[in-house]
TrEMBL record:
This is DinB family protein. The lineage of its organism: Bacteria, Bacillati, Actinomycetota, Actinomycetes, Kitasatosporales. Residues 1-38 are annotated as: Disordered. It comes from Streptomyces benahoarensis. SUPFAM superfamilies: DinB/YfiT-like putative metalloenzymes (SSF109854). Pfam families: MST (PF04978). InterPro entries: DinB/YfiT-like, MST-like.
Amino acid sequence: MSEELERWTQATVYPDMWADPDDDPRENTGPSPDGELATLQDFLTGYRLTLRMKCGGLDAEQLARRSVPPSTMSLLGLVRHLAETERDWRNWIGDETPLAKLYGARDADFDDAVAEQSVVDAAYRDLEREQEATDAALAAHPDLGERVGKDKIAIRELMVHRIEEYARHCGHADLLRERVDGRVGQ
């Protein structure tokens, strides 16, 4: 990557933002949620939207581009990784036989994130399906102090870990996206 990209944003109100407040689906003009569980779910929803926004408007090649060498990370790889991670969290909840990996071998979520539209489409389907399944599994455990699974992890800890995982990878997505096409913003 020797080409110098010009930094840009679609925001006009605050030039360091991804989008103007009126155009940002994460903007909530109402009161913040009541209760700990609703607050955790609200933060998770915000980070999930951020990841999708960071990937928005890119083609398969751009999504699969490893724009920060020598890292194997790409935006598409992050989508696949988070689908894999959502599935793994369900393994923490239950005592059953662990679910198989979505993409097979270790690091296949990143290594096999290739610039094909069918791979991109499948990754988004996988992410949505796995998010819905994990959300449904956790909905059966509304007590944040309840301990589940063979390791007896608290639901609260699992929820916080999910937020941390998305937040960390949204930070990666910031850098990856800027290297792909120069777009910046929180």
